[in-house]
Amino acid sequence: MSKIIKSITNPKLRLEILTPVEVKRIHEATLHIIENVGIRFPSQKALEIWEAHGASVDRNKMIVRARPELIEAAIKTCPPIYPLSARDPAQDLMLDGNHVYVGTDGCGVEVLDIQSGQRRTSCWQDVADIARLADATEEVAFHWVPVSAQDKPPETRGLHEIKAIWENSTKHVQTESIYNAREAGAAIEMAAAIVGGRDKLRQRPVLSLMQCSAPPLGHDGGSLEAALLAAEFGIPTGFMTMAACLTTSPASVAGTLAVGNAEVIAATALLQLAFPGAPVFYAAAQTASDLRSGAYTGGGPEDFLFGAATNVLSDFYNIPLSMGSFATGAKEPNWQAGIENSLSTFMASIVMSDMLLGVGFLHGSRIWSYAEMMMDCEIFSIIHKMMQGIVVDDESLALDTIAAVGPGGNFLSQKHTLKHMRDMFLPQFMDRRPYNEWEARKDEARDWALDKARKILATHQPDPLDPKLSAELAKIIAASSR
Amino acid sequence: MSTELFQRMAQSIIDGDSDVSVALARQVIEAGIDPLEAITLGFVMGVNQVGEAFAKGDAFLPELVMAGEAMKAAVSTLEPEMQKRGLQRTMLGKVVLATVEGDIHEIGKSLVGTMLSASGFQVYDMGVDVPTAKIIAKAKEVDADIVGLSALLTTTMVKQKEVIEELDKQGLRKKIKVMVGGAPVTRDWVQKIEADGYSEDAIGAVGVAKQLVSAA
To answer: What is the pLDDT of residue B115?
Structure first.
């Protein structure tokens, strides 16, 4: 099977969602928040680093206030471009601002069983299966831990999960389910084993880490320490804000951008102060809470605006962005899923967000659906095609061919048509059949998508991981829980 | 005169105005009005109106939360007077809420606390990252009817099981019911750990809590 990874590159479409003046205002608001309101860093290590660099630290409340000069100087040392490496170097990804890469979403707790369709608790085997499917899917450039391996002990669950992915795929692995220093240390050891040593790991980071913040304006202690360890070893790391209008951030989109920005930029600055030049990324999945229940919605016009606005911010800081997209709140692959996943992914893509998380979920990133994964991949393919825009040149204007056909007639048997017809998009899951054909079977996208997933899983063999390596990873996991 | 005052009390809750509700509560004390009457005929009327509007979809969460806070402020102003007179509000039950050890996520739990409080429960919110032993100690101390446990991570969710097992061990489960919640909590998990109740959102949690105390 081809190892090609489909990514959006050299875009011909553009969107201006925030003017430079507006971006500057958000940046200044962010600096104001960090300096005057403060950010909570519940980690002794983090507080020490802040203190050592002259920030004002309230040890009791564990709140840090830092002056703009400190923050801006720190952010300047972030590397603007770096790779996410893969077991197979042909699948390395360049975070250079000119690629949009899609990953599997995570970290869900239930799976719609691929055979029975029944909803059940997620387990380690699901992580392995999903990884193997993603390995064969060109729209998926990298992995997140898709679902929680709930049959593994909590203390080493995160390690078992990345082992499962490395054993079933050669693509880059990013984990969002390791949020303490002990597990992070073991994960780094495992990654080093994969590439053949800690030094090699710096050149070829086959692992990256993502940590969630604790909005508003806070972080998790374990997450901070895991991130600091990752930064120390050159493992790309990012903090994700999930600030939500109404509940954990202001009801306004701009206010939510400011709150999230403050969380991310402050924590990113911390990593740079500790390890200048460490590869870092901005991560975000802001949303608007439901007005009635306060629930996380994962979709709606505000979400779509966040999807485009955030990359403008990360571009301002000159660091790559991991943006939440897809992740519909729908319970089935239906109308809502279509709208939410299309609009969110379109908005995040048109501004060239580097990493999109991600395909495969229903019900607000909680329930894995194999059908949804395939359908999300097709949504990405459609947007990928749109982003190529319209080429206007002699060849595409086709004046000779137009003259040859003249008024009346058709273009079906023209050489030009034959030459360019494969540039046209051929969907896998859109229903374009005559009505009576549909009426006879009443099948649709979700059926064909599920079928495709089943076929791939029945046949796809990823490049195997050396069993000796597998054994070494298992040893590292066993040692980590002692 | 009293009717007008009661109406203004109700309105202060509808407006979610703690300053006004507290000021009116003080007036009640100064005027020698029965504080319990003030609550049931004044402030609670406002809570009920907001609740109805909310259920209909005419009012939203922030209005409910602000009404709840205005109510809380008024009641706490009247507390000393009620104690003096030996009066007590009939509450639906006592609920101890906590986000389990190792977990710092709070918003869902706080919303549940607000809803329960607005619905007539006595709520003791212990905050986040609370060790199992402390939760149980608090539940015993206040003579809780319900313990509500929140977790946002599958790895901390296991603490919900730990609390239930500890309550079982201490023979407290007949008296104390356990509700669980948080994004990773599923029907499967609830059944597995034999929790007594579960809701995916704060609104549903009130219904579950009411069921649990009435069945007791």
So the answer is: 86
Residue A113, pLDDT score: 98
pTM of the shown model: 0.95
The whole-angstrom distance between A157's CA and the closest CA on chain B is: 8
Q: Name every chain A residue with its beta carbon within 8 A of the beta carbon of B189.
A: 121
Domain that holds residue A406: 394-423
- Class of B93-215 per CATH? alpha beta
Minimal Cα–Cα distance from B28 to chain A, Å? Answer: 33
Could you read off the pLDDT of B23-76 as tens digits, one per residue?
A: 999 999 999 999 999 999 999 999 999 989 998 999 999 999 999 999 999 999
Comparing CA positions, the residue from A265, A283, A278 lying closest to residue A78 is A278
The mean pLDDT value of chain A amounts to 97
Q: What is the pLDDT of residue A481?
A: 85
Number of structural domains (chain A) is: 2
A140, β-bridge pairs? A102
- Residue of A39, A40, A107, A109 to mutate, interface with B, max B Cβ within 10 Å: A109
**Same domain as A346, residue A237:** yes
Contact A248 B62 (CB under 8 A): no
A357 and A217, same domain (yes or no):
yes
Q: Are residues A330 and A418 in the same domain?
A: no
Extents of the domains making up chain B: 2-85, 93-215
Q: What is the mean pLDDT of the segment spanning A117-138?
A: 98
Is residue A451 packed enough to be buried (19+ CB in 10 Å), middle (13-18) or exposed (0-12)?
Answer: middle
Strand A110-112 versus strand A99-104 pairing type: unpaired
pLDDT of B2: 79
Q: Is A219 helix (H, G, I), strand (E, B) or coil?
A: coil
Q: In the structure encoding, which two tokens stand for residue A336, read together?
A: 């809502």
| A293/B61 CB distance under 8 A | yes
B2-85 maps to CATH 1.20.1250.20: no
Q: What is the dihedral of CA A191, A197, A198, A202, to 10 degrees?
A: -80
